[in-house]
Amino acid sequence: MGTMGGAAMALWLLAAALALCLCRSSPTGESCPPQCVCETRPWYTPQSVYHQAKTVDCNELQLSRVPWGISGDTQVLLLQSNNISAVSAELQSLVNLTELDLSQNHFATVRDIGLSNLSQLITLYLEENQVKELPDFSLKDLASLEELYINHNQISTIGPQAFAGLGSLLRLHLNSN
Questions:
Q1: N or C, which end of the chain is more exposed by having fewer CB within 10 Å?
Q2: How many CA atoms lie within 13 A of 88 on its CB side?
Q3: Does an H or E element contain 5, and which?
Q4: For residue range 120-159, what is the model confidence (pLDDT) as tens digits?
Q5: How large is the C-alpha radius of gyration of the chain?
Q6: CA angle 13, 31, 61 (to 5 degrees)
Q7: Which pTM does this prediction carry?
Q8: Residue 121: exposure state from Cβ atoms within 10 A (0-12, 13-18, ≥19)
Q9: Model confidence over 55-77: pLDDT tens digits?
């Protein structure tokens, strides 16, 4: 190959690198956490109303914590099938979050999840963790929550005020506890 072949190869490599960089960015130009997929996806409310939602998909990545750098305008955060056992400040800036999937992780209590400041959360998936009880007021900050999936845990005790503050709740899945 001559100079022309080398130039064409260099141009192709540059285009491939640029495409890779664009794939790692969210639609707003913010970076996406490593290994996660950030894109706008269809999302349906519990009443089957269709929306486009900014989604960060970090499912099945063997993560031990919620990744930092998730954009504040994220609406759907998928963290299913990881090794997360506690969440502290990682979710606090996600004030637009409407769906959070933390199923198939290692949570022992609901308080380990750091659910305060998620006032827009509509759907919460906590299936297949090791939650043993639902204490009083443990979900009190989730006034907009309409769907709670907490089935397939080890819940044996539910406080009389465990669901206090969940005035919008439409679906509660508690089976197989």
A1: N
A2: 1
A3: helix 3-23
A4: 999 999 999 999 999 999 999 999 999 999 999 999 999 9
A5: 20
A6: 90
A7: 0.82
A8: buried
A9: 999 999 999 999 999 999 999 99
Query: What 3-state DSSP class applies to 167?
Result: coil
Listed in sequence order, the residues at least 6 apart from 115 whose beta carbon sits closer than 8 Å to its beta carbon are 91, 121, 124, 139, 141, 142
- For CA atoms 46, 116, 114, 62, the dihedral sign is positive
Cβ-count burial of 6 within 10 angstroms (0-12 exposed, 13-18 middle, 19+ buried)?
A: exposed
29: left (phi over 0), alpha (psi -120 to 50) or beta: left
> Is the separation of the CB atoms in 69 and 58 below 8 Å?
no
Q: Give the chain's end-to-end CA distance (angstroms, integer).
A: 67
- Asked whether the beta carbons of 109 and 131 are under 8 A apart, the reply is yes
Spatial separation of the C-alpha atoms in residues 166 and 63, rounded to whole Å: 30
Per the document, the length of the chain is 177
**What's the token pair of residue 31?**
């970076």
